[in-house]
Design brief:
Rubrerythrin, domain 2, 3-stranded antiparallel sheet, 0% helix, mainly beta, two-stranded antiparallel sheet, binds zinc ion, 78 residues, 5 strands
Length: 78
């Protein structure tokens, strides 16, 4: 389940939101503004393909924090 970071454009408050399906945060938990922008995900479970589609990159099955491959033969991180 991806967690996205959002930032309120009114008070610049940063907050995380657990995205389930197509749900989106309706407002800022700090000031109640509906003007929130999604920030870069800190998890990186998905990436955009060349044509804009969402491509699952290892989908959280990788145990490696140093690379995106499912095994760590290339980067040595374990
Ligand atoms: Zn706010």
């Amino acid at each position: 389940m991806p967690i996205y970071e959002y930032q309120c454009t009114e008070c610049m408050h940063n907050f995380e939101y657990l995205v389930m399906g197509s749900s989106v945060p309706d407002n800022c938990p700090a000031c109640g503004s509906i003007s929130v922008n999604k920030q870069m995900s800190t998890c990186g479970f998905t990436s955009k393909g060349v044509s804009g589609e969402t491509v699952a990159s290892s989908a959280g099955t990788s145990s490696c924090s140093g690379c995106s491959s499912t095994n760590c033969s290339s980067c040595g991180s374990l």
